[in-house]
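RETRY 2/3 - previous attempt timed out on the joint model. Re-submitting the same 472-residue input unchanged.
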Amino acid sequence: MEPIWIVLIVVGALALIILLWYIATMNGLRQLEVKVNEAESGIDVALTKRFDVLSKMVDTVKGYTKHEQETFINVVKWRNNLPEELTIEQKEEFMQKMDAVQSGINVVVEQYPELKAEKVFSNLQHSISDVEEHLQASRRLYNANVSRLNSRIVTFPISIVASKIGMQKKEFFEAEVKKRADVDISF
Amino acid sequence: MDTVLEPLNKKKKVSEIIMALGGVTLVGGVLLFISGNTFIVMIIGAIVLFIGLGYFNHVGTLFKSKVLKKHLEEKIENCVYNPKKGLNKHEIMNTEFLKRPDRIKSEDYLSGELDGVKFVSSDVVLKERRVTHTSKGTRTRYVTYFHGRVFRFDFNKDFKGSVQVLESYRPKSRRNFEKVSLESVDFNDTYKTYATDDHTAFYILTPHFMESLMALEKKHPGNLGFSFLDSHLHVAIHNRRSSFSIRPFTKLDKDLLTRFDEDLNIIYDIVDDLKLNKDIFKEEE
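RETRY 2/3 succeeded.
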């Protein structure tokens, strides 16, 4: 075989290997992105569930205080003015506003211990604990997937594929960190 | 208690003397046989040793039924202890990470309630058949791949699907398991996590729960496996030990019961460390 053919075969084989690697890496990144999106929709589901349970709780405590009902109505108004698809930042804000409502409800419960004795309210308290557990799980799952995706995107040579397909680093859902801080609930 | 232990210790001593006599005779018999003498002494030695072992096991059973049972009943609510019974094959396979055995030995069944958490458990030995084909024919032998204790606890969270946290096992189930990486690098190094739904894995394995599983691994050396399925937690610890076995030439006394209490610690640790006793997640009936 002539040397030119050997060179051509080697170059062709190398090109094929690079092409296959490119496709495999691209698919891997896309799959990871799908996982991030799935995890984000998990956050949406958990936020919606929390919103639902919280609205029932507000309904139950409305006989005890008007303030929490007004705060909650403000949250509903704020939410209605936002687009259907929320950004991570808006989701964090949504979560913090619900935290504020929840804190208010907890204060009401402390002031009116008889609330705890109400079966409906007690069931809702169990529900909200469970919903929050699910929300935390969704948040952690989302952040774990984002962390994996982000670290891949910046790793050479995967970073080349990522920039070619226009994939960018994703935002972390960091509401948990801010949760303990005072939440601004002015509208 | 001493009035019960004293006669047992006497019987145990007799069994040990018989075993020692049998052992010495057997060794002497083997030496005689090798040097070209009769094999009768060897056979007699083996028979005496066998009788001694049988009697020793009988003393062990008497100790379990007369002393240990009462001791466990004092410590565990609604305690059921049966030294001759164990978890059945179906219950062991419910862990979904232990391989289907060709031979199974299950004993020292213990069930009850600790801090309101129901559990069942037993010592389990699982063996698989290995067939080797050689020029001289086929050789079949049974190899132990699990020797330890298997537990099933009530679990306080309702969840979808199944999650397995395994030190070195692999899921043995037709479920569509996927490997899940959690945030803790140390946890991922110690355990491999498999789940039918990654959200459920994150839901069950909270950071505190992961820390507790790591602590359990440090406290109880052995190969640990945890399976969360149908509101139950299945635990298997492969530590090559039988929990409540008496040893030859060791006195039956309160110290021995203290040693058995240490074996029970894993049950307390699982209930306490994993907060199985906190029923805050379940809806009220």
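Chain A has one domain: 15-179. Closing ticket.
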